[in-house]
Structures are given as structure tokens and as C-alpha cells.
Amino acid sequence: MAQRTVIPFGPQHPVLPEPIQLKLTLKDEIVEEALPHIGYVHRGVEKAAERMDYTQNVFLVERICGICSFIHALCYCQGLERLMGLEVPRRAAYLRVIWSELHRLQSHHLWLGLYADAFGFESLFMEFWRSREMLMDIFEKTAGSRVIISACCIGGVRRDISDQHLQETLETLKTLEAAFDKSSEVMLNDYTVKKRTVGKGVLQADKAIMLGAAGPVLRASGVEQDARQTGFAAYDELRVEPVVETAGDCYARAKVRIREVRQSLDLVRRAIAGLPDTDIAVRPKGRPNGRTISRVEQPRGELLYFLAANGSQKLERLRVRTPTFANVAPLVHMLPGSELADVPVIVLSIDPCISCTER
Amino acid sequence: MMLSSVIRNLFSKPATRPFAPAARTAPQGYRGAVEFEEEVCIYCGACATRCPANAICVDRVAKSLEFDPFKCVQCGACAEACKKGCVQLQIDYQHPVAVRHTVAFHGPPKPTVAP
Ligand code: SF4
Ligand code: SF4
Questions:
Q1: In chain A, which residues have their Cβ closer than 8 Å to the Cβ of B5?
Q2: pTM of the predicted structure, to 2 decimals
Q3: What range does the domain containing B75 cover?
Q4: Domain of A294?
Q5: pLDDT tens per residue, range A60-93
Q6: Which residues contact A208 (CB under 8 A, 6 or more apart)?
């Protein structure tokens, strides 16, 4: 006789990089219902942002997420620049693209590794993380730090990348691509890997739109949407076509990210080739006043900042909507009907970043 | 592919460094530990205002500065703010210590006015 059991999945689970709890109601081995519980890593960043100076906040928002720190800072600075009427120099815009795409590369490498680990493929995990180390070294060389790179500032970027470092970056990317070709081949074509991912956690396009999915989760369901199409930073000149897959399962989500890695490699190369020779920052004048919304594309999807300023040193309100927050509802929809053994793979397939979600 | 990777890994050196005996030097431009040059400081407080971590405390009247390296996040905002070039981020990694401490210094005592 079928019996219902409730299993708490997380907050401490070997597959989860960060704490989230899913209460899974099982009927035998099949998930019937999943209830998410968050609140384990809430840090009060939004409130802290109201207490600090708006220039200091750049360093604060970077710490919302360690994996895409630059993109958080970019989103925040972009919003303030709009409020203060600043025009960012073209070189700074291009450098912002270069660092953003390098962050996307490193984030996708990190995810591909963790994902391989989720279905127990330890050696593939090591391969991806070994490659990722090359990207961390690029950050250290060009920006002065490995994780929180603090390269973005209001009005531009804080430091330039020298020609020599650009050349070295291109060289490193060549090595990286060669390694990536081999590892991604396994991820896409290996029989065992496909057994674990094809047809698991399917999300249809209409459901993805209705539940407000974002980023690769949305694009893997066949919806063509990428915030980079809005043309922020230098994306207006370096056009980006969204990477779309239609199956909507875990395999498609991995495939989207693998194709995005290639896209990012191409973007970095194009940005370096077309890097204009201008200043790298303008001095902000006056204080921000008004309200605005800033949108950028993070590795996990669209990131949105709402900023309310009142002409003083401090912001009135900072609201951050991160892509993982948007992807929790689709995740809860994907789980029912799947086997318990597939839950880790499905949960990881949305690339959960809980520290982002809870801020 | 995995077979070739097994063979490669069997005969290659480890990807990691043997830390401690072969400590790595940080690249130029690395944001490391914060160091102050006491003699140059004018106690203007610009660094303290910009510091996002409240790691620096400057008393402009008493002419003293206190810095807590354990609060510092090595962002480099203080070095950018200091007009005197008195704060610098070292290229070296911040080393662990056994006891928590702060760095404090102050200017010369005010000349006492003769009665
Ligand atoms: S900004 Fe420089 S000179 Fe001014 S208090 Fe700080 S360290 Fe001293
Ligand atoms: S490096 Fe940043 S956190 Fe550290 S003392 Fe300077 S401003 Fe403060």
C-alpha cells in the first residue's frame, strides 16, 4: 500500500551549496508535493544599504553574491548613473562587458561542476573546477581579487586592463576552451549522464512564463528572453542572441549553459577586439534623486534593482530581485512526479543561489 | 574522453600547489593587507568616511587613527580616498594571526602653550 512520507530535503544536504529546505511529500518513491522554506542565510543587505553611503553600497551589493559579484555592482551602478545622469565612457562599458562575461564563464563552470557532482560524477566536477581556476586567476590579475573583484564604480570602472593582460586573457581563454570542449562533450553525450538528465524536471514554456522563470531555466523551455538584449553596458554594440533550447528538462538547461559558455567566450573576444580607447570613468557630480529600475543579465537570469533616492547621501530604499528567487516557483512546479533520486539533479538544474535570494 | 583524462592525470603534476612550502606570490595590483604610513597622515578622515566596513576610525581633534584589520574587506576605497598617499594596499596576502588586534597611531602631542 502506498504510504505518504514527508522528507525534509536540506537545509544541509550534500548536493546543496547553500541552505534551502524543501519539504517533500512522497508517495512511495514519487514526489507529490514540494514546499520550499527559506530564511537560513538572510543577512539584511537591503536594510544595510539604507544605512550606508550610496558610494559605499557598491561594495555592499557585491557581497550579495560571490559568484557574480561584478554583475551585482554593475546593476547597482547602472541604476545610480541613470539617476545622476551620468554617461559612462565607452571603454568602461566594454570593460564592464568583459568582466561580466568572465563572471558568467566562471559561474557556469562552477555550476557545471556542481551539477556533475549532483549525479555523482566527481571527476567531471574536478575537470570543470580546474578550468574555473584559470578564470579566477584572470580576475586576480586584472582586478586585484579573485572573488569579490570590486572593479565597478559609479561612473565607470575602477581600473583599466592593460594590453598585456588582455593578451594573456585571450591566451588563457584558448586553453580554457580546449579543456571545455572535452568536458562539455561528456556532459552532453555521455550515456550515463543523459540517463540522469534527459526528461527530468520538465518545465513547459507556458508554465515557465506563468511562474516567472528567469535566465537559462526560461530559455531552456523555449522562451527567447535575455536581459542583455536591452543593450546595457556595451551590449548595444556587441549584439547578443539568446541561447534557446526547447525541451525544458535538466538536459536542456545544461545545454543552454554550455552554449552560453561558448557565447561568452565569443563576447569576451569581440569586446577585447573592439575595446575603444577612452577614459574609464567619469566623476559623479551631485547626489542621486528619484526612482529607477535597473536590469541586467546574471548567469542565473535577470537581476533587477529598484532604487529610490532622495537627494541625500543615503538611499531611501534598495530592493533586489534575484533570478533564483524567480526560479524557486518553477522548481516547486518541476518536482512533483519525479523520483526522489532525481530531486538533487532537478534542484541543482536551476542553479540555486540562496544567498542571493535571501540577501 | 574520461579515459584520456585518467591517463593525463596519472602522469601529470597535481593541479594544486603544495601550499606553505611553495607559497604563491600575488600578482601586481593585488589588493592585499592595508598598511598606513604614520608620518604622512594628516588625520583628515577621508579614508574613514569612504570605508564601507567601518574599519577605520579617525579622530580629527585628538589626531589619532585606529584601524581594525579584521573588519577590513580589502576593497581599496581608503587608498583611493587618501590624498596624501598614506594608505596603501600591500601586494601580499593578508597573513593569519593568533590574536585579534587593531592598529592605532596618533600625531605629535599639541605644543603646550607656556603660561
Ligand atoms: S585619508 Fe589619509 S591622511 Fe586622511 S586620515 Fe586617512 S590615512 Fe590619514
Ligand atoms: S580597504 Fe576598504 S575595508 Fe579596508 S580599510 Fe580600506 S576602505 Fe576600509
A1: 123, 127, 182
A2: 0.87
A3: 34-106
A4: 43-344
A5: 898 888 888 899 999 999 998 888 888 888 888 8
A6: A217, A218, A221, A223, A248, A330
